[in-house]
Design brief:
Four copies of one chain form a homotetramer.
Chain A lengths: L4 E2 L4 E5 L6 E7 L9 H11 L16 E3 L3 E2 L2 E2 L4 E6 L6 H4 L11 H8 L15 H19 L2 E9 L2 E2 L5 H4 L12 H14 L5 E8 L13 H10 L4 E6 L10 H4 L3 E2 L2 E2 L7 E2 L2 E2 L4 E7 L9 E4 L5 E4 L10 H27 L6
Antiparallel strand pairs in A: 1-2, 2-3, 3-7, 4-7, 5-6, 8-9, 8-10, 10-16, 11-16, 12-13, 14-15, 17-18
Helix pairs in contact in A: 1-4, 1-9, 4-9, 7-9
């Protein structure tokens, strides 16, 4: 219980259901005197927002964020920052008819068993819509990390079904609605998405995240390692089924001589470690990768049950992403930003010798 | 900081360095009246213990655990359980000569940068020896879960370098020092390990963990999902670079129709989800998989630096596992047990209606 | 940092400044299927609301609470409950002129030193207005405790300056705006308040809280004792300078034979312990008492400094309570309810043997 | 549950029963490179140790502390510090005969109801012996605060039953076994204690704690205020029934003009606030006061029940303090040190701008 908070010094606590009045969060522990306004947050919310291309759900939300507290005359005050986004485009009618259905591949089954009651409208709390607040909170962390420490956190769609990015261009990424880095394969990607939509099916994806400028020393062994906390934050994103740091699962077939990164007085010669050794950042780029499962909400029917445990066939109409991976890049960036921010503050606490006040 | 505790209701806090006086932990939140004695814990410590075959480090520790508190007349009292294992076979001399060296692929570099001081003997706190206490604490969780809820947590070596298990036999697993489930490939495995040792090299591995009998309803959305907490616990194990739940990274190329598990009044027809939907257990087997990197401590030299940032060549003598994966199975089981135990208690807190006392 | 959350299983996180857009909180960990609507919360907000008598600040807020999430079709769902109260009657102009002043006896000095920036409007985050959200969250805990366990939490004004209550009548308490239990002294109280107001001065107060129906067994030694957590929650209320459990400071002159409560097969014969032994509830009434300092915002001038460390004289106009104690009763009740709720759930987690789901 | 940890960044987790094998704790989050050896801790353990005068329990323990980890070559390494004190003088036989008795005024009743099982030897976990580890952990915090920030934490016995200290001399305090500051009244105190012992009775006490050199800015509103956390830490000490900060309960009859502390460019002119405003330290001395109840273990019999709920008369033989307050001074100092240390690190985390590593 009480599982809706992440972080120890920089904490983010979220609330809100897909079709409730609003989504919100409290960002606690943000240092004072950071310039902050709605626009800083809106930029990332807009990157995540649905309805921006024909390849994502047609639900149209403005997702306009309001800062309710913690900012005074354009600067953070060190007190908790309250954020809110109102839900404006809920078509709850769409869900009336699946009121009693347990949608396969969804949280319907488990929420029903855990709580004995559920808000069935759009998945309620389990909807990907919940990630709006992760992105909002992450935007604050991102800004602080960039301004105060020149840390950049960026991600991209590395693979969508059979289509793998080969060239990585950061320019390309922000120029297409997939956050895909390989310009030569974008037309292929769009064709694949169109065929999927015709088929009424969905597909999984892989997202890579790279954090540059991270100082060495972040991460708290033994349990609160930086990699362990990143795994926690990233696996907590809806639909994520796998997390890798650095070489990830490739290490299974690597030999020690291949994997270990040589060090010279000028730095490391490779980065199989993904920027983390012994759970602490090395100062190299932090590299993480996640796998997102395909959406289970499909036109194509599947066997399931209803809340009376009777067999039914479920086919989902309504508005859904054929690939949740497409919009997951800003969400994954946000989680990495939140974790890094928390560890930056934690590291300072133990290791800084300066006391203000 | 203060990163040496895991869990919220069932918490485990550990201390100890590879070559210090002792390793210990405090298990807090264990329910009262569980039958518990040293033997219950020793069984798992012995499964993890080094020096049991020629394929693991020849360091010989008895790893005898002492229960210092929390148990009275053979039963837990509900108060914190203090556990201790004394270090008996420290050959600190082995390490004198690498005092100033930063071993590539190790935590030497990051501990040095983070703390500005380090216990260089056997990696100090960053040594895999620290996992002794995870196994000890996990044994308590395992016993409670088995006795009270008939939950079983078992793991095996699924792959070691190029050698993949094809047949999974739970009998075979406990009959070989690799925890390998495929009897037909064990001789192949031993030959491979011998050649590795001759070569002076090491290799990575994959461990699979299966938890059976887990009730549906465990896990706390949004951030403290069961899968997110499992990812945290498993990624916190030394050398782990990747974590998967259910289909894991295979989902990248799966379509929605393949991935989603059909449900019938008698249960699920498949388990791509790995027993978790929306961060909450479904009641199916929980399936997790981890990737462990190859040991970096090798006879074969590698470029590195010393603490004065001068270039050096590092070759490690001393006693090391050519594959840390071999002994990681009980450690991974322990982490899964600790996480499940914590979530079982958390779930009760919010959802049980019974108040004792 | 990140100090705006209380509780471990039933957690309350608040945000909001006196003159910001809104105050809000997230109540996480409330069990599912509790009947809940705005009215349940509004009742307590109205008990605390200013402007209800000439003896409290004339600031007039409706303090209308909105439930933004966590409740579906009139029942809690087990997901976080988002609450919000908009600020409607901020007269920020009142504060423009004290922009640079450090008001003696206020948090101005410490916020300024800690954060180097502050929202000077009405004390910003340090305003007693922040307690609105404590009361709102406490109302949810109160309702659960009452409905599920028949636990009642009630408080009263035990002393205001020289005027001590001698007769305690629960009926009387809710019939006067002081929450004073002794009808014979109310006119005396009103006369005293009027003279204070003429004088332009303020006065301290003592509030007593009594919780009945609390089962034995709540509280987690050693550090998270029920009495320790009550002390934490009560001391966290603005202006509180002292907390007592049971006999409180009278124990200094009590002998063991006087203090210890005799036990019979039918229960305890006295309650000097205040319902708590060894940090765990005994099943008797839990009795706590707090001391609230007099408001420092007075017409009468006092030496102080401004933010340039120049000497100034500060006299506060604007709308203030001559005795914060008057409205503190519902706030103290709320804190006790939140702490008891948290411990009820924690106790269940460790001691219940039932697993739902 | 899991209530045996205190602190967020500087955390102390303890274990151990009065008559178990050992008491221990893990101090996590101590900054690296602090000079530390057993003697630093032993000094305070000796100040607390029983059997040092005829006025305290005659139980004779050496209470020799062992540092098991976290210190290397005389300096802390930043990793968890494991501490242990073995129990050497347990006379468990003394307790056999009260095996089934519920001692009035003790935790016997509540542990029995909470856990359904208890270690009856010397109160088990609920024994004041548990405070040994608080003192040990506090000694580490004290040393860091003194060396790095010149913060001093000292306490004294302010009142024992009817005998109040009038003159406060820090020299006198360490020269008598009562930690009493008024030399003129010590003979009176000894006479009173002797008469109490003859009578077979016990008495309560008041301890005052003063922390000097505390920088302004420590404390995290709203819930984790410095005063609230001090109240938590102090109320968690066995036998404490009341906590005051600054003027404490005297504020009930104070007027605003009396209570608020005037400020000048050179500092405050008084300290009714006890060094804390709005939950944050002002830079003045922090002043706290606690009330400790009289021991309930008396030769004089009292009505009670046994574990079969049958009426019995309980008279305690064995070795007990007629006034627990006498030895409580070092314990209260330790708790204040632990809380200040935690808040110092937390404050740095949010407000320091320096990142090491």
């Amino acid at each position: 219980m009480a599982g809706n908070t992440i972080g120890k010094l920089f904490t983010v606590t979220t609330f809100g259901e897909s079709h409730g009045l609003a989504l919100g969060c409290i960002v606690d522990g943000c240092p004072p005197k950071l310039d902050l306004c709605e626009v800083d947050i809106q930029i990332d919310l807009d990157r995540r927002r649905p309805g921006t291309s024909r390849h994502t759900t047609q639900r149209r939300e403005l997702d306009e964020v309001k800062i309710l507290s913690g900012v005074f005359e354009g600067k953070t005050t060190g007190t908790p920052i309250g954020l809110m986004v109102e839900n404006t485009d809920q078509r709850s009618r769409d869900y009336e008819k699946i009121k009693d259905l347990i949608r396969p591949g969804h949280a319907d089954y488990t929420y029903w068993h855990k709580y004995g009651i559920r808000d069935y409208r759009g998945g309620g709390r389990s909807s990907a819509r919940e990630t709006v607040m992760r992105v909002a909170a992450g935007a604050i962390a991102k800004k602080y990390l960039a301004n105060q420490h020149n840390i950049q956190i960026r991600g991209y769609l590395a693979q969508l079904g059979p289509i793998k990015a080969e060239k990585i261009s950061w320019e390309v990424i922000e120029q297409n609605s997939f956050f895909f880095p390989d310009s030569e394969k974008i037309s292929q990607l769009e064709a694949y998405m169109d065929s999927l939509r015709k088929e009424g099916n969905s597909i999984g994806a892989r997202i890579n995240i790279v954090a540059t400028g991270v100082p060495s020393g972040l991460g708290e062994p033994i349990f609160d390692r930086l990699d362990a906390d990143l795994a926690h934050g990233l696996m907590s994103i809806n639909a994520v089924k796998g997390v890798e740091i650095g070489s990830g699962f490739d290490v299974v077939t690597q030999k020690g001589t291949e994997h270990r990164d040589p060090i010279t007085p000028n730095g490391f010669l490779s980065n199989h470690a993904g920027g983390i050794l012994g759970g602490i950042s090395t100062g190299q780029d932090i590299i993480a990768s996640i796998a997102l499962k395909p959406t289970s909400s499909l036109r194509l029917p599947e066997q399931s049950i209803n809340t009376h445990n009777e067999p039914v066939e479920v086919a989902t109409t309504g508005r859904h992403d054929p690939c949740v991976g497409i919009r997951a890049t800003p969400i994954a960036e946000a989680m990495v930003a939140i974790i890094l921010m928390d560890h930056l503050l934690r590291h300072r606490g133990q290791n800084s010798t300066k006391v203000l006040g």
